[in-house]
Amino acid sequence: MARKDEISAGLLAYRRRDGLEFLLAHPGGPYWARKDDGAWTIPKGLVRPDDLLAGALREFKEETGLTARGPFTPLAPVRQRSGKTVHGFAFEGDFDLSGFSSNSFEMEWPPRSGKTMEFPEIDRIGWFGADEAMRKIIAYQKPFLIELQKMLAVTPAARSERRNDGEGFVA
Fold first, then answer.
1. Does the residue 17 lie in any domain?
2. pTM of the complete model
3. How many CB atoms within 10 Å of residue 122?
4. With CB atoms 3.0 to 4.6 Å apart as the test, which of 1, 21, 47, 149 could cross-link to 127 if both were Cys?
């Protein structure tokens, strides 16, 4: 299957503290070891087109060791440079990250050495405020953060917290 025909799905967890915070995952393995800004991702993986949310839930559990609970809000799909489509689902949750664990993968390392090594699929996870999350997340996934922030800014709860200042402006 060509990369452009592949479909991935993942979950974007968020919580409300002093502001919104997003749970992002740092890919494991030697190619990502020295990368930070622009390298983090939502926990995600390959799924069948008829199984997007179930696949996203499975990948989240495998890659973080955490169990996500809905409701889940679908986000507009994004595309990787390779052409692969990635579907995201947002949900509100607050996790104790001390329970983090990730599945692993094997690859030849160092290249052309004939040796196979095992690496965690995700080597760490963390909560990031909106600005830091935009710095950390891989570029093609930034629309997930932008869309979710826009959605949450117009929720009934957010509207009820705003007040009219008497001159027709909403604060």
1. yes
2. 0.86
3. 25
4. 21
